[in-house]
Amino acid sequence: MLPLVLYRPLLLLLACLCPLMAQGQVLRTVQQSNSLAKYSPGNAERPGICMEILRAVEQIDPGLRFSGTDKQAPLRRVEIMLGQGEIDVFFCLLKSPEREKQWRYVPVPLYRIQHAVAMRQGDEPEPRDLADLVQASRRKPVVVTRGTVLAAGLQKAGVAVTEAASDYEALQMLNLGRTDHVYGQDLNLLRNMRESGLGDKLRIAATVFQTDQQYLAVHRKVPAAVEQRLLQALQKLEREGRLKAISDKYR
User: Fold this and answer.
1) Can you give the pLDDT at residue 42?
2) Strand 104-120 relative to strand 202-204, pairing
3) C-alpha to C-alpha distance for 65 and 62, rounded to whole angstroms
4) At the topology level of CATH, where does 25-111+214-249 sit?
5) 3-state SS assignment for residue 87
6) Listed residue (93, 97, 112) closest to 208, CA to CA
7) What is the pLDDT of residue 9?
8) Could you tell me which of 142, 178, 139, 183 has the C-alpha nearest to residue 159?
């Protein structure tokens, strides 16, 4: 038995250690497949904006850890997993009314994206607005990546669309002449054009159809205290300019 005089320092030490031990939290997530700007497995130098933000959050709050980063799923599967609680969080998702009914968003914008159109080099004219895109889609449907909120927005505006499995596949269809326009997020389109070697054959038109923000999505059953830690980590990254620096690296 320890001498009585040693109990008080020991109790004080345990009091200090217990809160630190309780801080450890593992959150399940997954990488989005076929989205090279967001996740690029195997590329240590440019692993994707969302993966870099995830790792930065772990650096800011060492008690937060993310499992499942070695797994991939297409966007539609990601949404199902998040809605059903198979994963706890996902970096990064656009907001939509339908999505906000299923899970929560941490209110710190991770990075900005622009809705843009990819075209073949030399093709004219460029669509100046959605009305022009509606007219162009009557000749050949506009291609958009399956499962994104972008398709619903185009269809609501009257644009005829067809879906591809990925931006990479959509750009291949454009290069082969199966469509004249690929509608998507500027960063994803640019990254896939570079990775596919089509940068000298395709281009991004000047028109910006819409600007959106990507956010961290959180399953509704994630404890409020954990969500608050995620918020604080992202706020610090925003204050320090690290979120902007990460996204600028991919522009």
Assistant:
1) 85
2) antiparallel
3) 7
4) D-Maltodextrin-Binding Protein; domain 2 (3.40.190)
5) coil
6) 112
7) 47
8) 142
pLDDT at 111: 96
Q: For the chain, report the end-to-end CA distance as a whole number of angstroms.
A: 64
Residue 170 and residue 176: Cα distance in Å, rounded?
10
DSSP 141: P
Per the listing, tokens 């291949």 go with 172
Where along the chain do its domains lie? 25-111+214-249, 113-211
pLDDT value at residue 146:
86
Residue in the block written with tokens 């320090």? 240
pLDDT score of 243: 97
Environment class of 99 (CB within 10 Å of its CB; exposed 0-12, middle 13-18, buried 19+): middle
C-alpha pair distances (Å), 82 with each of 58, 73, 102, 147: 20, 11, 8, 14
Here the tokens at position 24 are 């450890």
Give burial (CB, 10 Å; 0-12/13-18/19+) of 183: buried
Architecture of domain 113-211: 3-Layer(aba) Sandwich (3.40)
- The pLDDT, as a whole number, for residue 195 is 85
Q: Between the CA of residue 157 and those of 97, 136, 140, 150, 161, what are the distances in Å?
A: 17, 13, 16, 11, 11
Model confidence, pTM = 0.80
What is the enclosing helix (H) or strand (E) of 100?
helix 97-100
Q: Which two tokens stand for residue 96?
A: 């939509």
Residue 93: its pLDDT value, please?
95
Q: pLDDT digit string (tens) for 186-240?
A: 999 998 998 889 989 999 999 999 999 999 999 999 999 999 999 999 999 999 9
Residue ranges of the chain with per-residue pLDDT less than 70 = 1-23
Q: Whole-angstrom Cα distance, residue 171 to residue 189? A: 8
Q: CA 89, CA 105: separation in Å to the nearest integer?
A: 9
